[in-house]
Amino acid sequence: MNFRKKLKLYVITDRRLKDEIKSTKQALEGGATSIQLRIKNAPTKEMIEIGKEIRKLTSEYDALYFVDDRLDIALATNADGVQLGPEDMPIPTAKEIAPNLIIGASVYSLEEALKAEKEGADYLGAGAVFPTPTKLDVRVIGIDGLKKILESIKIPVVAIGGINHENVKEVLKTGVDGVAIISAIIGAENVRKATEDMRKIIEEVIK
Ligand code: TZP
Ligand code: MG
Fold first, then answer.
1. Which pLDDT tens digit goes with each residue over 115-124?
2. ipTM above 0.95, yes or no
3. Residue 193, marked binder
4. Are residues 202 and 9 in contact, defined by beta-carbon separation less than 8 angstroms?
5. 85 closest CA partner among 70, 99, 65
6. pLDDT for 206
7. How far is Cα 205 from Cα 134, in angstroms, rounded to an integer?
8. Which residues is 125 bridged to in the sheet?
9. What are the angstrom distances between the C-alpha of 122 and each of 53, 55, 92, 106, 107?
10. How many other C-beta atoms can be found within 10 angstroms of the C-beta atom of residue 35?
């Protein structure tokens, strides 16, 4: 499965900042390679409607489409993958139900990273690299924590948490396959330009 290259600029929606569909479109125009639909506490019906739109848009731009937490929404909207945290559906169960989906695991420590890889995750979202107002209670692992995970893990790793245009180079130099970003892109005045600028920096480091 050669999805590794498409993880490099992984943009995550956030309705607290912008409408999911509009911001997805703008991020894709600016060069996002993956989009994740992340909605906490919305009606399932609404999530499915939005997910179907994001599926259409990501297909048009040849980008991947992931769903946060919810395997049911991922299957119902024909997503490429689902992102599961330590308290979501266990990875082996998700693989049994949906053998063709890419399973991403959200991990917040080396122990969780090793466990997720062993259980069969296809890639990791590892963080938070830096403190972030987007997820206040999150554990911060720092660049050093990220490096430790990368030393021990073979599957692709996407870094997440507090990544912006200023610090992204430092993150990319650790050897991660990509960066997952909410506020520095979705919270920007011009989402398309913020994505474009980020993509340019990424292309300078990840060849
Ligand atoms: N998981 C770990 S940190 C984080 C999530 C969802 C928030 C990332 O958002 P931002 O705004 O890019 O820091
Ligand atoms: Mg999650």
1. 999 999 999 9
2. yes
3. no
4. yes
5. 70
6. 85
7. 26
8. 106, 158
9. 25, 20, 12, 11, 13
10. 29
Q: Tokens 């398309």: give the residue.
A: 192
> Which ligand is nearest the CA of 86, by number?
2
118: tokens are 């062993």
Structure tokens at 104: 């991403």
Strands 102-107 and 81-84: parallel
The protein residue whose alpha carbon is closest to atom 3 in ligand 1 is 161
Contacts of 97-106 with C-beta under 8 Å, sequence gap 24+, read 97/71, 98/71, 98/74, 101/71, 101/74, 101/75, 102/1, 102/3, 102/64, 102/66, 104/66, 104/158, 106/160
Total number of residues shown for the chain: 207
Q: Using CA atoms, how far apart are residues 126 and 160, in angstroms rounded to an integer? A: 6
Amino acid at 141: I
Residues with CB under 5 A from ligand 2 (ion): 68-69, 85
